[in-house]
Amino acid sequence: MIWKLKKWWRNYIFQHEPIAEAIWQDVLARVHFLQGLTQPETLQLRQWTTIFLHDKKINGAQGLIVTEEMRVMISLQACMLILELDLDYYRNWLEIIVYPGEFILDYEYTDEMGIVHAVHMAASGESWLAGPVILSWEDVNDTTNNKQGYNVVIHEFAHKLDMLNGTANGCPPLHRNMDPRAWTAAFKQAFEACCNQLDKGDELVIDPYAATSPAEFFAVMSEAFFVKPCAIQQYFPQVYQQLSAFYRQNPAMRWPTGVNL
User: Fold this and answer.
1) Domain limits of the chain?
2) Would you say 66 and 100 are in contact if contact means Cβ atoms under 8 Å apart?
3) What is the CATH T-level fold of the domain 2-254, as seen in this structure?
4) CB of 41 closer than 8 Å to CB of 79
5) What is the arithmetic mean of pLDDT over 43-55?
6) Where, by residue number, does the polypeptide cross the bilayer (predicted)?
7) How far is CA 113 from CA 32, 170, 200, 214, in A?
């Protein structure tokens, strides 16, 4: 009964709070990795995006005025991750804060060993457990920086999925038909290989930030999985298989062979 009520409410929002057609088409055209979506996938993405816009607050910081097109640009990309899942994956938090450009992180945290760390650094995105997602609009709006599969929206929302287990550790809650041992083995092997490549001074096909931690590795791999899937399928086939099972998508099928290697 509850799921029927939820479905009715979501359909009501979709029908009564539509995204303007001109804005929708403009954003679709700008985000290149959406070009291969089928018609049913595009319709589902539009539904999720419409409801996401209803559920979440997107506020500007440092005087930034957030336009409707900006809201759609962020929301649409966030909903790509849960295209074949459900909006409930983004439950228990409300706000997205958008800065004009990079912002400064300045805080302390205590690690598992009880050691206190001070963080003071420029960032383009940040996700908080049960808190907001923070984004740099300059980075969101840069749809041309795709050499290493960079996408700040996908990165931060992948962290949100990862945190559904209570902490960001590189392993989001897997589906019942997935083997946690296979996930761990695939990601551990790929993470160690990337770290070794960096130690030798080799160039990676993904953002080197992936080597920071298993949590960042999952987020960076999620970026590349959507933005340059053929490269991930070729160079990290086991990771691609696990991400495909988790996101229930096969984005490499949307691309001509080798187009984004």
Assistant:
1) 2-254
2) no
3) Collagenase (Catalytic Domain) (3.40.390)
4) no
5) 97
6) none
7) 43, 19, 29, 17
Residue 236: phi and psi, rounded to 5, are -130, 65
Q: What is the pLDDT of residues 214-231, one digit of tens each?
A: 999 999 999 999 999 999
Position 102 scores a pLDDT of 81
Task: Looking at the chain, list the stretches that DSSP marks H as alpha helix, in order from N- to C-terminal side.
Answer: 2-16, 21-30, 39-55, 68-80, 137-140, 152-162, 180-199, 214-227, 229-235, 237-247
Q: Which residues pair with 106 in a beta bridge?
A: 120
Alpha-carbon radius of gyration of the chain: 18
The pTM (predicted TM-score) of the whole model is 0.91
What DSSP letter does each residue of 97-136 carry, written as one string? EEESS-EEEEEEEE-TTS-EEEEEEEESEEE-TTS-EEEE
**151 or 121, higher pLDDT:** 151
How confident is the model over 231-261, as pLDDT tens digits? 999 999 999 999 999 999 999 998 765 556 5
Average pLDDT, the chain: 91
* Helix, strand, or coil (residue 213): coil
